[in-house]
Write a structure and sequence with these properties.
Elements lengths: L6 H46 L6
Length: about 60
């Protein structure tokens, strides 16, 4: 079996792999930011409940 690769094939593979890594990193960053927002909202809701004297049960 004669497998051949030219410079264009190699460059295309490198570019696709680089894009996948970038996409993965962006998704990780997005998830982290979403988690921070959820935590901030939860914290703000807790403070609001405490301020109104509403008991919070866990």
């Amino acid at each position: 079996m004669g497998l051949e690769a030219n410079e264009e094939d190699i460059q295309e593979l490198v570019e696709k792999h680089g894009q996948e890594l970038t996409t993965d990193k962006l998704m990780d960053l997005y998830r982290e930011q979403q988690q921070e927002v959820v935590e901030e909202i939860s914290s703000a809701e807790e403070e609001e409940k405490k301020g109104r004297g509403i008991p919070h049960f866990k």
